[in-house]
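WARN no homologs supplied; continuing
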Amino acid sequence: RTFPGTLLDKMFDPTKREWYTRAMEYPGHVTLSAPYLDVGGAGYIVTISHTIFEGKPAALHSPLDKVVAVMGMDITLGYFHKLLAINIKNCETKGVRCFLMDDRGYLIAHPGLIDPTGKGPAEQRHITHMEPLVANDILNHRGFVQKKLCNRYNDRTVQRYFAFNTSFTGTLTNLVHGEQCARYQITHIPGTNVFLGLVNHTCDTATAFCPCSMYD
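OK structure emitted
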């Protein structure tokens, strides 16, 4: 069911959507999806979703309980960025960029996603695309990120992807010593599949060699 009501294609299957599948991966957690185009015509949106468990006395649940449904709430990308700026004042500091990324490194919020002069869609933008200096340093943190691969049989390629540790506690910061153009801090938001990052750029360059290609 949807509220407010809207016309959807008969072939639309919510159980195949990312906001549904990611919630099922993290039962009992709040999951956020990377921006995508709304099938109802609202433009780019972010979906916040959560599993609903089978009812029990005293409403006590665990992630092992039976999931009977997934509920989701859509927020337009522009309004989502506004909420981020209101609640995290450092995001408005000159030279500082805030971002949210999911457990696979795909950006949920980043100034580049709403930049009117930016090129390309807001979908499937990875931290390796938008923050290569940060991504290059993150790979040096053992236990925080793993680089995995899977075979794509439709085009016979090997796709690499990142898996970030959602059990991570504390704050991640620059590991490589020396002069840094981008000083960053990243922390996991408890109870979610999301990481919050702040980047302080002290030089104009935004490019770097990153051994983090996604395809072979």
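The two ends are 41 Å apart (CA to CA).
OK
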